[in-house]
Sequence to fold (67 residues):
Amino acid sequence: MAEFRLWQIRRERGITLVELEEMTGLGKTTLNNIENGRVSPTIREVEWICGSLGITFKELFDSEYNK
Fold:
């Protein structure tokens, strides 16, 4: 099963939840819930996150990407 790596990518880049909120247009609570696995993002939310961070779906979901 693929791991959702939003928290890891955000921390590696030094991006706060507030900054990601501004980048994506998604609320901090929504982003926090996505990061902590309390909710699953919609395809549209994943597109916004990937577009804002300049990453692919594979990079966001594949924990083996950088190995």
